[in-house]
Inverse folding.
């Protein structure tokens, strides 16, 4: 069983993240947590009960789904102040649906700005018992 | 992937055609720079761009090139009207990120003792960083007008002077904008941000003309040694980011549909005449205009702040717009290719238009000497004003470099800055820094950037853009 985790990787102008988890659904959750950690620079989040919101996305393939999911997490955080901490996700062919859990109206916890999630040099590897991704962000 | 370089001369390197490349690549760099460039992924990106359909001439990279996403930063590529494509990744997320330079009637020696006070006044006047959005409250209708009219909208609202518009690229209003092509999300992101700097490498900077290399051209631009200047670097904020994001999703699908093979998905593109490309162009134009209006509004905030702090009227201050250039844009332009004038779609990503003397799109006041090219350096050293040349028109689709280019990653810069009194260090160098975030200042450390003097020397020696003046910063406002 692979643990879940993430780390930042050196990139000259922008920022790259690597993250891993036992399967793709948990990988997406791990990626979301990494994005929130970057945006909040690791400052503690509210201790209040998280709220839930439904989410549905269409995508061309798993790589596109990963970028669209992280873009959604980024949008919810930077525009709506909803900081995602967890999610239960189903990944039917080329799509994503499920429930996102997080803290609403929490924009005061944001410390930095990420412009976008890019497709450049995107890596997504899926094998039994492990999923890994590398994503470059425009900061 | 190993990229082969062939040296052409002291400033030019060719990346020969290989595999699916439709044209060769050309990199402008000195021998001293090329080793650093080779270690980067940007040469591979130059080669990737050369794969795109309808590319004309060379896939170009300016001497400030570095690894971006899709196109390299510092990349220029032109596409044929019929065969070519439009690629949002060739423009970037911060559509019409650009630089504006203003000159003043003040001498640096007359305000040296006031600089800290002026930096604080500017910091309070120009919203920057996270959580400091615009002081303007735009209605949906007003946002439409901003996206359609650009800087002219701001001037109509009292933010600036009508004559400001004469010395902005495109007159501050890019044709073809259609607000109906802009998503609700992009509008939501952009609406509270007009008239705000943002963070990262964006800045508002007071400086002075420290050296003049070409008296006549400098005089035409209104620049004289010892005079105080103001420079702004910002773009289309969240509106542009979202427009790029929205378009990539559509362009990925379009690339597959039109059978465009992509060496990097971030290069996704659609034929110039396709509905996908036309919709993106109309939305991109909205962001271009938003960015022109953004810099115009901040210009007016800065003028008010300096006027109040120095108790001087507009005439006494001067603060006239020297020029305002786009760094991230795709434009229809006419260029001579193999002796024939052709209409091309020129993508500049982290590159500046550098039209030479006589071109009708160069403002009348500068037509005899060529378009001003504004090249900011890092916040501790200097920036340059160059002039576009005839050779740029022949070789680079009238394009030049846009800045110093990063040398260190943000993480490395932060490690080098750790424990150092950065604000004090910069003050010792004569630069007062006001910033929303200490982290930004650490990431933007002067040594995080290449020496912009080396970058502009390549452009000058290659005959692409002539050195006109050097500006030295004295007060910097960062997000």
């Amino acid at each position: 069983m692979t643990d879940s985790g993430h780390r930042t990787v050196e990139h000259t102008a922008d920022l790259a993240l690597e993250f891993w988890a036992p399967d793709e659904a948990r990988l997406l959750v791990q990626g979301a947590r990494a994005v929130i950690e970057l945006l909040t620079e690791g400052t503690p989040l509210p201790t209040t009960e998280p709220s839930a919101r439904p989410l549905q996305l269409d995508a061309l393939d798993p790589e596109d789904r990963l970028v669209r999911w992280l873009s959604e997490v980024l949008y919810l955080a930077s525009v709506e102040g909803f900081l995602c901490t967890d999610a239960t996700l189903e990944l039917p062919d080329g799509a994503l649906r499920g429930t996102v859990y997080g803290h609403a109206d929490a924009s005061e916890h944001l410390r930095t700005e990420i412009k976008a999630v890019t497709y450049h040099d995107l890596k997504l590897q899926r094998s039994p018992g492990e999923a890994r991704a590398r994503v470059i962000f425009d900061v | 992937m190993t990229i082969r370089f062939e040296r052409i001369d002291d400033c030019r390197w060719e990346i020969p055609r290989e595999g699916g490349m439709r044209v060769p690549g050309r990199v402008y760099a000195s021998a001293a720079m090329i080793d650093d460039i080779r270690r980067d992924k940007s040469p591979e990106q130059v080669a990737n761009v050369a794969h795109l359909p309808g590319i004309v001439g060379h896939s170009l990279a300016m001497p400030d090139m570095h690894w971006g996403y899709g196109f390299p930063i510092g990349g220029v590529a032109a596409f044929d009207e019929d065969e070519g494509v439009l690629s949002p990744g060739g423009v970037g997320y911060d559509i019409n990120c650009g630089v504006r330079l203003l000159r003043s009637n003040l001498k640096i020696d007359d305000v040296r003792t006031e600089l800290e006070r002026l930096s604080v006044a500017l910091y309070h006047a120009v919203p920057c960083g996270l959580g400091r959005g615009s002081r303007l409250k735009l209605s949906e209708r007003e946002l439409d007008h901003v996206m359609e009219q650009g800087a002219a909208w701001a001037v109509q609202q009292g933010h600036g002077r009508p004559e400001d518009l004469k010395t902005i690229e495109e007159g501050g209003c890019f044709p073809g904008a259609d607000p109906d092509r802009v998503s609700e999300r992009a509008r939501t992101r952009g609406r509270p941000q007009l008239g705000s700097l943002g963070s990262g490498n964006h800045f508002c900077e007071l400086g002075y003309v420290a050296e003049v290399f070409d008296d006549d051209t400098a005089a035409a631009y209104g620049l004289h040694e010892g005079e105080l200047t103001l420079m702004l670097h910002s773009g289309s904020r969240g509106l542009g980011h979202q427009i790029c994001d929205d378009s990539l999703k559509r362009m990925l699908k379009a690339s597959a549909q039109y059978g465009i093979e992509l060496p990097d998905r971030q290069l996704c593109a659609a034929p110039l005449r396709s509905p996908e490309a036309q919709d993106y162009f109309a939305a991109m134009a909205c962001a271009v205009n938003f960015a022109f209006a953004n810099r115009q509004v901040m210009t007016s905030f800065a003028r008010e702040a300096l006027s109040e702090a120095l108790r001087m009227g507009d005439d006494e201050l001067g603060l006239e717009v020297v020029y305002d250039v786009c760094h991230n844009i795709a434009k229809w332009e006419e260029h001579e290719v193999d002796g024939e004038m052709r209409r091309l779609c020129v993508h500049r990503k982290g590159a500046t238009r550098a039209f030479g003397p006589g071109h009708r799109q160069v403002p009348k006041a500068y037509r005899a000497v060529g378009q001003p090219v504004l090249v900011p350096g890092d916040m501790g050293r200097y920036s340059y004003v160059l002039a576009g040349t005839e050779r740029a028109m022949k070789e680079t689709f009238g394009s030049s470099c846009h800045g110093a280019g990063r040398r260190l990653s943000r993480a490395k810069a932060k490690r080098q800055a750790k424990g150092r009194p950065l604000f004090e260090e910069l003050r010792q160098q004569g630069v007062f820094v006001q910033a929303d975030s200490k982290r930004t200042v650490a990431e933007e450390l002067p040594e995080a950037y290449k020496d912009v003097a080396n970058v502009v020397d390549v452009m000058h020696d290659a005959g692409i853009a002539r050195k006109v003046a050097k500006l030295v910063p004295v007060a910097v406002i960062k997000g």
Observations:
- The interface with chain A takes residues 40-41, 66-70, 73, 89, 92-94, 130-131, 185, 188-189, 198-200, 238, 241-242, 244-245, 248-249, 252-253, 256, 264-266, 268, 406-412, 437, 439 of chain B (CB under 8 Å).
- Residues 419 and 460 of chain B are 38 Å apart (CA to CA).
- The longest helix of chain B spans residues 275-310.
